[in-house]
Every structure is written in C-alpha cells, then in structure tokens.
Amino acid sequence: MDCFLGIDLGSSSVKVSVMDGMSGQVVAKSFAPESEAPILSVRNGWAEQNPDDWWTYLKTALWQAMASGNVKAEDVKAVGITYQMHGLVLVDRDLRMLRPSIIWCDSRAVPYGEKAFEELGHDYCLTHLLNSPGNFTAAKLAWVRENEPEVFDTIYKYMLPGDYLAMRMTGEVRTTVPGLSEGMSWDFADNKVSDKLLYFFGIPREMVAETVPTFGEQGRISASAAAELGLSAGTPICYRSGDQPNNAFSLNVLNPGEIAATAGTSGVVYGISDRVSTDPRSRINMFAHVNHSASEPRIGVMHCTNGVGILNAWMKRMVAPQLSYSQFNDLAAQSPIGSEGVTILPFGNGAERILENRQIGSTIHGINFNNHSASTLARAAQEGVAFSFKYGMDIMQATGMDTKVIRAGHANMFLSPIFRTTLASVADAVIELYETDGSVGVATGAALGCGYYTSPEEAFRPLRKIEVVTPDRSHHEEYLEAYARWEDVLQRELNA
Fold this sequence. Notes:
alpha+beta, 7-stranded mixed β-sheet, 6-stranded mixed β-sheet, 36% helix, 22% strand
C-alpha cells in the first residue's frame, strides 16, 4: 500500500491523516491532545506555545493513527506538513529551542511592524513585501532583539512552526519562499530575501533558513526521529505550507479568481490572484501561494478574523456547556435573523488585521435582560462571525477579487446552518462545501510533491462536493439590516 502522511500543526491540536494514494481516501486519522492545547498568555495580548509539546502531540497522534489504520512504517512513502502561520521559533547551533514560540495571535510586535511600515515607507512595503510588516514573524523577532537580547545573541536560525517540526524530523533547518513571504522576509519585486527589512529590524541575514521548494524533497526523516515516530528512516518530506494556503490547496484552489474559506479558531477567506493590487491600508494580507513562481505569480489574497471558532467555543462554554456543538447550532436556530437586536463583535483574540492591527476586544451590544436568552447569544455570536467575513470580503473586492463563489471544507463553523446561510446571504455568495480538511490536503500535497501524482487534476480527482449553500433571498433585507447594525456598532467602537 502506498500511503502519504499529512501533518496539520494547529494552535489547538496536531492532526494527522494517512491517505491511500491509489484511492485518495483517508485510511487513518487522529489528533492530540484530546482537549485543546494550552496557550500561555502571561500578559494581555501575548500568546505562546511550547514547540516541544507540538512534537509530543505529533508522536501521540501518529502512533494512534498508524495503529488504528494498521499502517506499517514502510507503507508511508512521503510526508507533508501544514502549520499555524506567522509563529516564531528560535534555535541555537545545537538546534535547541531558545524560548517558547510566539504564535500567530500574539500582538506584542504590532508597534514594531507599524514603525517599519512608516519608516520604510508604505509604497516600498506594499510593492516589495505586499503588506505592512504588521504583526508577522519578522516583527516578532524584532521584539525579541529589543526585549530579550540574551536570547537574540544565541540565535542560530529563526523559523516558522512547520519548519520546526520538519527540523525535528530531519535535523535540518529549512523553509520555503511562501513561508518567508508570510513572515514578511520575501521581496517580491526583487525575487529574493528582503535584505532591506532584515537590516531595518537588525536581523542578520545568516539567521534566515535555507529555502527549499514547496513541492519536492525538502529533507528525509532521520533514524532517531523515525524511531520516535514509528516511521522509516529516509522517508522524504515533500510538501510544506502554512495552514491557510494549504486549506486553499486542499480545496483545489490554485488558479486566479478561485476562492477558499475556513472557519476554525480563526476565520479566513483566501483568493488567488496573478497580479498585485494591494489595499492602501494593508487590512488584508498577501502571500506567495503554494504554486507561486516569479514567472507565473500566484498571490494568496487573504482576509483573516482571529476570533471565529474561538468565539463560538467561548459562547458555548458560557451559555450552554452541556450541549454538543450540533446541539448548540440547534439552540442558535431558535433565535430569529438579527438575534433580536443583539450584536456581537468577534474581535477578542488579538490584534485584527482588518482593523489595521487594532485590538478592540469582543463586545456584546443590545442585551435586554428580560427578553434575551442563551439562544439569542448563540445566534448573535455566529452572525457576528459571518458579518466579520463580509466586512473583510468587501475589502478584498475593492482590490479586484470576486468573492461570489466560495469553496470550504464541511467542518468547524461551516457545519452550522446559521453561520453558513448568514454568510451566503449577507455576502451574496454561493458556498460549495467539500469533504476534506487541511491534514487530507497536506497528504495530497506530499503525494504530488514526490511525483506519485503527476498533476493537480489527478491529485484532486477524489475531491467530492457534498453541499451547496445559496443566499436566502426570502429574508434578504433582514440579513442586510442586521449587518448594517453590526457595521454601525463596529464603527462606533473604532471611533471611540
């Protein structure tokens, strides 16, 4: 049996999928830990995780999946890795971790990115980096340089979370061009590492990892790692991508004009463009997509709301902890469109790019203690998330991105009829739901990267559309009225 292993390093767990290459079907799947992985927040706006824990979770999930699917080490022909984006992992020359990872939703580096945006110049940043340096990996490293000089002075290489897992598996520190672009270290105009940004932040060029192709051999599993993981030494890693580009890839979103979305802990709408048309206020992100090249540009245009599934989970814990998520969705459906005037802003998970890196927090407006109930709050939370998607999609459309058809995995908040119907209706978009997820997509990427599949068309032949969600035309005005109220509340918060 020719199998391909997909590893998905998220902020809540590490998921693994083992895919049979012949059928394209998953033969084993697992995740760890069983409860959400902890995020250490010693100060408001900070978020860190221990990379050693990621390795432990990977070993647990992989052993469980291999055992449940009766998959032998020699069956696995190649490995792919996807990961939470924008995190910072630091190692010394012995490849020992120097401090916990500063992860994607940590906001401490915002002032460093804003200073770079102003002093390097908006025009330079938007034409060369495609973004404000914002709160991305390079800015996080600048924070370490200024605030933890004893750590900075011992850094050998900095890397992204997925690069760290690959390093633990191969003993080699490598990254990709899309990875460098998501960390704001890639100059698109000059097609090389951005020496100008590194110089501004005081980051030595030698700290940047060697680059390898997104698809293709990136290293082979060492004997020591193979013994820990239950895999064969020499198994190649053949694909690596951040979670949002990989989510788009898993939905076969590779060509200009195609759109993908996801609604996990954070929520993303991600479209592909073959040209650069930036938002002057840098409220949406632009990165090299998995199939980007200098000769055939493929730019991922991305809107992100940090507080999506995490708001839904928080609200469930607060008002209905005894319910399953399916039951919680049923509870939300008991409240009418517009949640009886209750409005929730979902921005309680760090600085929000669509708000120009401001951190305004999540707020609830319009509560009446006599009339409103748990169902009101459940629906308002899900509507608030959908409205934040609409807000970001409007910015994407202003850059020329058509968001009328969206592909998404049948997972996370897209399992909620309230959320997906609200989004389709308020955005006037058709949502196509597919039976896939990030770990399946990354296994597919590994098979494509090692040459088992010769083309994306062959790789995605098994991809199955299971449902189409269309706008609710009969209640169109009610959705628009609720969104207008939400947007008015947001503007008042931003102007406060």
